[in-house]
Write a structure and sequence with these properties.
The chain is mainly β. It contains no helices and eight strands. Strands 1, 2, 3, 4, 5, 6, 7 and 8 form an eight-stranded antiparallel sheet that branches. The radius of gyration is 14 Å and the shape is globular. This is Cupin.
Length: 115
């Protein structure tokens, strides 16, 4: 199976839901997902003051591309803050996070499997 086919639609029609980890300050708007592989395209939102430290450092078994649409957050392991207009491309197994934000952040993410 693959992500479903969608023609243009208002992204605002998709509700934000709490991400795995159950922190109500960290939510996602899933735009398309493959239920078999778990890969997805989403908008991720950290409200001001959100901190993913309880979820620890993340490593995925899929590729992840992230573009920061607005705001900023800090990778607590790296001690670096990333801001709107910045982009990351992470191969499977690349450690990242945990994250903290004072002002809040919104990202656009695409996740997929390699060959």
């Amino acid at each position: 199976m693959a992500k479903p086919e969608h023609e243009f639609f208002p992204v605002s029609d998709v509700e934000f839901t709490v991400c795995p980890g159950d922190d109500p300050k960290i939510t996602e708007r899933i735009l398309a997902a493959d239920p078999e592989t778990g890969v997805a395209t989403r908008i991720l939102r950290y409200e001001p003051g959100a901190d993913s430290t309880p979820m620890g450092v993340q490593e995925h078994d899929f590729w992840e591309e992230v573009y920061i649409l607005e705001g900023s957050f800090t990778d607590l392991t790296l001690g670096e803050t990333f801001t709107a207009g910045m982009y990351a491309c992470r191969p499977p197994g690349m450690p990242h996070g945990p994250w903290r934000t004072d002002e809040g952040v919104v990202t656009f993410e695409v996740r997929y499997r390699g060959k």
